[in-house]
Amino acid sequence: MAAYGLYTHIASNKTRSILLLVGLFLLIYVMVYAGALIAEIFLSPDRTVDYYLRAAWVDLYKALPIATIVSAIWIVIAYFFNQAIIDAVTGGHTVTRKEQPRLYNLLENLCISRGIPMPRLKIMETDALNAFASGLNPRQYSITVTSGLLKNLDDQEVEAVLGHELTHIRNGDVQLMVVAVIIAGVVGFFAELVFRMVFNSRWSFGGGSGGRSSSSSDGDRKGGGGGAIVAILIAVVLIALAWFLSLVVRFALSRSREFLADAGSVELTKNPDAMISALRKIENRGELEGVTSSVMEMCVDNPREGFADLFATHPSVDSRVRALVKFAGGHDPGRLADLQNAQITPAGGSVPDAGGAMPTDASPASHPGPWGSPAAPASPFGGPTLRQ
Questions:
Q1: Is 165 among the residues known to form the active site?
Q2: Residue 375 carries which DSSP code?
Q3: Which of 246, 252, 289, 384 has the smallest number of CB atoms closer than 10 Å to its CB?
Q4: Bridge partners (DSSP) listed for residue 122
């Protein structure tokens, strides 16, 4: 289901979440069938490939209820404890207004302005610049920001990042990502389990000693070891395919969600320049050490990319900034690192400080150049293009 706008995007996310859950069960069944193949080889090491394939189908039929129940239990656990699992991985902790008045007030003002329920606020202690939203329902919704982001971004930029994450919650992106993580997690777990069983076991495929002594036809017995080897290869391919598809499910999630979240931030804050400067500061500074790829995929920016950008979960910062300049009337200051390395001084101004903040005596309106230019026409994202 293609998403061409905000409402179709939200509807598409709901449909995809259902399809992903259905896909979870299908991938689990593939894993069970591959495991049954391996089990049949262990029990009857001297059979034909046809025998192993038929026996594995019988085993799959018998195991379907158990596999379905286990998968359902995993979904229930993930539904109720996904936030606790994420916090354990990231080290994020909940903060109150008293502990973080600046951050709390910025988020509360955004929520009040649009009648949005206030999500929990969490801080992750790291110098990296990043943030992400998580949760599967209004009681779980949380926005986690890094301490490095709070230190390096000014109030308007932090507000833009919070607006970006709020939009992910409003658009249903958060639920979709968590469901995708659930699928990848359970399939990855079973894939590793079966691979360990295969490569850590010492099986003999040729002797016919031990194993199952069933009254099978002579045709089923004429494997000579070759049938077992072929069946093992089929099982390994099926497991690898299921694992690969679980990754594709995550990586193939529509990257348009980031463009829409940027647009949603502008709609909430009426400040495209703040979103652009926040992205430029976060660019190449968002890597969360020791955090799984699943969490990085939920962040404002994910510097980890798949091969040839095919499986990248986020569009590049350059492309996101270009969209904000084109459609929201924002102004691109250029990459922060490039400006600092080249010592480029904006006309009538100075190079941004280490945190990337603009000098107090400079503004895009009074100093055109890399940090600003004459106001652009009103954008389809709504609101004025720059706060004065």
A1: yes
A2: P
A3: 289
A4: 94, 144
